[in-house]
């Protein structure tokens, strides 16, 4: 049985105040979002906040737009997390799980997760639970059913049959973000088989992990939420009952 959570959604304007030297209170999830754009002079300033390995990664992007987005998003993540640990953004050190999920060195008991898509980025922070977030710009998906064949489970594909046109695009991204946020909360990437769990996707149906295989009990250990962050975008959040309920 999971306890309801309070979601606090805030738009982040880039301020780097070190003002909240504590993680979110138990039972609260902080969701910060921003548009990954800013004037070139500001991108240069944000570059200085990044660690050497992040700058190297930024330099590997072929297109300046993608490089700038990466720099903005990393600097924003640093700016926000710095508030919780009362450190300067450039002093934070990230560690990575075997599948690449970042966490903060020296920080125990609370978690964060980032997602970005064209025009929107979001960071979710919580104490005492695993967390995953996914945001996607809703775009026409002419091959939605073909992609669903590859990524969605049989019950999800059956539910998708009820939709066409714009409604199909919305249902597709509802399903995609709900599946993806769960994968990201578990942190296992695509090593977690996508056909082994079903999410809700019907119009007006609350976001939910409906079933998990082979262990049906796992579905009860997670809560899911849709997030209304920006018109034209789908966003979903998965949070575990507590850290101990998640197999390592
Ligand atoms: C990173 C991953 C988990 C998500 O990728 P994505 O959806 O393209 O990207 P998002 O914008 O939502 O998230 C990216 C962020 O997640 C975080 N991340 C990286 N690896 C992660 C992992 N294993 N678990 C959770 N979060 C991870 C990082 O902060 C990353 O930010 P960065 O790119 O600036 O380093 C990717 O490895 C993956 O597995 N993608 C699966 C895509 C897919 O086919 N999904 C099917 C859904 S039905």
How would you portray this structure in words?
There is one protein chain. The strands form 4 sheets. This protein has a 4-stranded mixed β-sheet with strand order 1-2-6-5, covered by helices on one side. Strand 3 and strand 4 form a beta hairpin. The protein is of the alpha+beta class and 248 residues long. Helix 1 crosses helix 3 and helix 2 runs antiparallel to helix 3. The mean pLDDT is 92.
Please provide the ordered H/E string of secondary-structure elements.
EEHHHEEEEEHHHEEEE
Distance between the first and last residues' Cα: 20 Å
Envelope shape: globular
| The number of domains | 2
Instruction: Find the count of extended strands (DSSP E, 2+ residues).
Output: 11
Helix fraction by DSSP (H/I, runs of at least 4): 25-40%
Which CATH-level-2 architecture of the largest domain? Alpha-Beta Complex
The CATH superfamily title of the largest domain = 4'-phosphopantetheinyl transferase domain
Largest sheet: 4 strands, mixed
By secondary-structure content and strand pairing, the structural class works out as: alpha+beta
Q: For the largest beta sheet, what order do the strands appear in spatially? A: 1-2-6-5
The share of residues in extended strands comes to 25-35%
Count of discrete alpha- or pi-helical segments spanning 4 or more residues = 6
CATH class of the largest domain: Alpha Beta
């Amino acid at each position: 049985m999971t306890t309801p959570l309070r979601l606090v959604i805030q738009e982040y304007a880039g301020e780097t105040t070190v003002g909240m030297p504590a993680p979110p209170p138990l039972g609260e999830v902080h969701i910060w979002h921003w548009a990954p754009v800013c004037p070139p002079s500001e991108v240069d300033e944000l570059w200085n906040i990044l660690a050497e390995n992040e700058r190297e990664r930024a330099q590997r992007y072929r297109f300046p737009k993608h490089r700038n987005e990466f720099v903005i998003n990393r600097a924003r993540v640093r700016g926000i997390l710095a508030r919780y640990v009362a450190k300067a953004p450039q002093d934070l050190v990230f560690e990575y799980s075997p599948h690449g999920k970042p966490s903060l060195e020296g920080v125990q008991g609370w978690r964060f997760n980032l997602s970005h898509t064209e025009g929107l980025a979001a960071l979710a922070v919580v104490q005492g639970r695993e967390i995953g977030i996914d945001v996607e710009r809703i775009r026409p998906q002419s091959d939605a059913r073909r992609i669903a064949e590859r990524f969605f489970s049989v019950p999800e594909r059956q539910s998708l049959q009820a939709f066409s046109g714009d409604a199909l695009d919305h249902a597709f991204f509802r399903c995609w973000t709900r599946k993806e946020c769960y994968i990201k909360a578990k942190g296992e990437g695509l090593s977690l088989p996508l056909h082994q769990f079903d999410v809700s996707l019907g119009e007006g149906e609350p976001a939910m992990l409906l079933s998990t295989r082979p262990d049906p009990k796992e579905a009860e250990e997670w809560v899911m939420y849709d997030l209304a962050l920006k018109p034209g975008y789908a966003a979903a959040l998965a949070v575990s009952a507590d850290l101990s309920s998640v197999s390592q």
